[in-house]
Amino acid sequence: MKISHKLGMIALVAVTATVLGACGSKQTSDTKGKTDPKHSVALVTDGGGVDDKSFNQSGWEGLEKWGKKHDLVKGVGGYNYAQSNSDADFTPNINKLIQAKYAMIVGTGYKLVSAITKASKANPDTKFLIIDDVVNRKNVASVTFKDNEGAFLAGVAAAKTTKTNKVGFVGGMHSEVIDRFEAGFRQGVATVNPKIEVDIQYVGDFSKPAIGQSLASAMFNNNVDVIYHAAGGSGAGVFSAAKNVIKSKKVWVIGVDQDQTAEGKYSGGNLTLTSTIKGVGTAINKVADAAMDGKFPGGKTTVYGLKENGVSLVKGNMSADAWKSVQEYKQQIIDGKITVAEKPADLK
Hints:
Blueprint: H1 2-22, E1 41-44, H2 55-69, E2 79-82, H3 90-99, E3 104-108, H4 113-122, E4 127-131, E5 140-145, H5 147-161, E6 166-171, H6 176-192, E7 197-202, H7 209-221, E8 226-230, H8 236-245, E9 252-257, E10 265-266, E11 269-270, E12 272-278, H9 280-292, E13 301-304, E14 311-313, H10 320-334
Parallel strand pairs: 1-2, 1-3, 3-4, 4-5, 5-13, 6-7, 6-8, 8-9, 9-12
Antiparallel strand pairs: 10-11, 12-14
């Protein structure tokens, strides 16, 4: 009996250590708070990481707020995250969190849809949440956003701000999600002034800021003076490129997913024009609360747009005229007077 008990304890410690090993360096188990294994939640990032100042960070901060709201421990039995440094980490990270018996596992981003689909089939008693894609299974809740609506407003802001009539868009990777950003932005620009040129470039990755910087630098050198990025961690390079030229010419960057005003600070000012906000953290918080209340929306897809306040645009450093136009177009979208395209191919 004693030997069996010791082996069980060793196995528990091994699983716990494995899960904590999957977490980022900034994340450690926290003894403050209580454990509630039946309602515990863990998040799996995509390649951008929880400190990408964008999509993943928004999700993690939302889960942190949820955990603290319920006085839960940060670690096994409470709330946690597993850092993915590449796509190959998705399935191992999910499996480690399943082994640690987290009640709900969140996949942040469409790139995790395959791994979440397989894991949900193999583990029907575990709840899953996929962000930015849909998995039609009873133990999976799906959340998507009308990113094109927020991006449309970013296009309005860019068009009302540019002095050169040249603006740019830097995307992370081609996908249905980033297509929505590109389509909405281009439509917003064209609605204000169809003569404005829009330079479209893609990094091919969400975690390569050096490439983002190179693409943005080329745009600025070609007289583009406003760039909107939807590139996750690669977007940091767009801000770097802007800071390198700000002393010689006035340029702006439009941030994404979170208010990225802080990323635009430089000696003498701030070059973040505005940011599109995506309620990833709020969505995770709501689904986690629903699961805790026995109302987990498994098998359902929830869509957040401007009307639901799931996407928005902050005023930032926009002029009063630009902000007024943004508010007018926002209301037209909410009222159904403007339909925003979801694919670049749908633009006239």
